[in-house]
Design a protein that fits this description.
Strand content: over 45%
Order of helices and strands: HEEEEEEEEEEEEEEEEEEEE
Oligomer: single chain
Number of strands: 20
Length: 316
């Protein structure tokens, strides 16, 4: 099934008629975004039109996307509130070939003393097939700490994650199984001190010996001043007898009113020092005039000019 002009016209008429019938009960919102990106050898054009019908306990949003090559995707999202603070959501996605996926999700479903989020993801293969099931359990208590459990099921694939929260610290343990065999393990520790935070994520591969981390990422994120922030990410491995740093990524962000200047650099080890491998300098500006907003972004890398984009967004 192809999304043709006739189908798009029918959908447009449908939403127009529906809006006229429910205008007394539902509020209508819309947004149109046009973005043009100029690169060294190409020009990319992206257009997004969002139209929403919202009532106190129910809302439907349609999002139409197109590029310089024409129609890209059409997405419908519906959200509804039910008794006992239960929420429901559906996502339906179309592309040039037709219907591609459907997601159905329920939030805050009561399960004894816990709350359950359940999502079923149907994806088009030859026919529409149940592709993935996601289960999130919140409001649990383990070792007197608030805890949550996240499970993702796919064909021959399972990802399970246990998260513990304790004041300013969050720790998690995650495992990935493929074909019933443990493929990868991951532990994460995150400390949030307000103006700054530190996070360490370690990845383990199954071995016959004791579990030993294979690689990790240490991230430090903080606000140096009200208008200046710093993020440093250090990727490292664990060879026999020590720790080896493989890459350091540093991001400095400066905000001055409507202007935002970001410098992102990558450093790699060389002999006894680190050398600058690559960098990106981004200058962004945002301006608003009534319901119209304009965002311009200029990017420069180690080779010079990288891209320049203009994004216009209109609310209606």
């Amino acid at each position: 099934m192809n999304i043709s002009r006739k189908i798009l016209a029918v959908l447009f008429i449908f939403w127009t008629v529906l809006a006229s019938f429910v205008a007394a009960e539902m509020s209508c919102e819309g947004n149109c975004t046009f973005k043009t990106t100029l690169k060294q050898n190409a020009i990319d054009v992206d257009t997004t039109i969002v139209f929403s019908l919202i009532e106190e306990a129910f809302g439907v949003t349609s999002t139409l996307k197109a590029t310089e090559k024409g129609f890209s995707s059409l997405k419908f999202v519906g959200e509804a509130d039910f008794p006992q603070d239960i929420e429901g959501r559906f996502d339906v996605l179309f592309d040039k070939q037709g219907l591609q996926s459907i997601k159905l999700k329920g939030f805050d479903l009561p399960l004894r003393k816990a709350l359950l989020d359940l999502e079923t993801y149907f994806k088009l293969k030859e026919v529409l097939t149940l592709y993935q099931v996601t289960v999130d359990l919140d409001d649990l208590t383990l070792a007197k700490c608030p805890a949550s459990v996240d499970l993702v099921f796919r064909e021959a694939y399972l990802r399970a994650k246990l998260t513990l929260d304790r004041e300013d610290d969050t720790s998690s343990v995650q495992g990935i199984w493929k074909e019933g065999i443990l493929y990868e393990g991951k532990t994460t520790w995150d400390h949030d001190a307000g103006d700054w935070s530190v996070k360490e994520a370690l990845t383990f591969k199954p071995t016959s010996s004791l579990p030993r981390p294979e690689k990790g990422i240490l991230t430090v994120d903080g606000d140096l001043l009200d208008w200046l922030s710093l993020n440093v990410s250090c990727e490292h491995t664990f060879p026999q007898g020590g720790i080896a740093v493989t890459k350091i990524t540093s991001t400095v962000e400066l905000e001055a009113g409507a202007f935002e200047l970001t410098w992102k650099a990558t450093f790699k080890p060389m002999s006894t020092a680190f050398r600058l491998e690559a960098y990106t300098l981004t200058l962004a500006e945002e301006a608003e005039i009534n319901d119209l907003s304009a965002d311009t972004v200029l990017k420069i890398d180690e080779d010079g000019f990288y891209s320049f984009s203009v994004r216009l967004s209109l609310d209606f």
